[in-house]
Amino acid sequence: MELQLKRNELIAWLKTVAGATVLSISLAGQLAELQTNISSPYRLATALEQKVDFLDDGPYLVKYEQAQDDDEQALPYTTFAMAMTFKAELANHPGKFVGGYDALIAAASGYEYLAKVSKESYGLVGHLLISLPQAPDELAALKEVLAATSVVYAFPDGTGTLNLGNVKMGNGIYS
What digits encode the pLDDT tens for the residues 110-131? Predict the structure, then answer.
């Protein structure tokens, strides 16, 4: 099944749908692409509620299928880390790229994430929301991955905003 909704309509719909599996989500009529491995409607709604500029108002095109049973439970956490990265080809060195895009996308595959990927004249720009793991060792590993592969990253600090206290520079330019 397929729906086309604005961001606020999509969030409301995702919170009310039970037993559905989200197959894909995309920004209708835009050059950017959304990537996610979050299939739970509730978790996807939580990601879309984050106050980050790279998630546009839409419209979003959602493809989903209704599941046979409903095992969806309320999440004990609703926080996400944010990361930005890119992959750019050097003008004077064709075939030579800088940026941690490939490494970050590969590392993020071990976590649930929502990503907006834009194709620019110089390469790719990726903005990601990554669901925070509950285990302290997995959280520490995620922080290491983001520091090494993103250009900028942030972890929630309770303010609900990106600010000087929670935004950090990563080493993703050199990855």
Answer: 898 988 898 888 889 999 989 8
Model pLDDT, residue 72: 43
The reported pLDDT for the residue numbered 67 is 61
Q: What is the DSSP string of 98-143?
A: ESSHHHHHHHHTTS-EEEEEEEETTEEEEEEEEEPPSSHHHHHHHH
Residue-wise pLDDT tens digits, 60-98: 887 777 665 444 444 333 478 899 999 998 889 988 889
Residues in the chain: 175
Longest dimension (CA), the chain: 56
Which of 125-156 are b and which e, b meaning 16 or more Cβ less than 10 Å from the residue's Cβ? bbbbbbbbbeeeeeeeebeebbebbbbbbbbb
Task: State the DSSP H helix or E strand holding residue 24, giving kind and residue range, or none if neither.
Answer: strand 20-27
Please provide residue 46's backbone torsions phi and psi, each rounded to the nearest 5 degrees: -65, -40
CA distances from 135 to 15, 36, 101, 160 (A): 26, 22, 25, 22
DSSP string, 37-80: ----HHHHHHHHTS--TTS----EEEEEEE-SS------S---E
Q: How far is CA 51 from the centre of its chain?
A: 12
128 near 37, Cβ under 8 Å? no
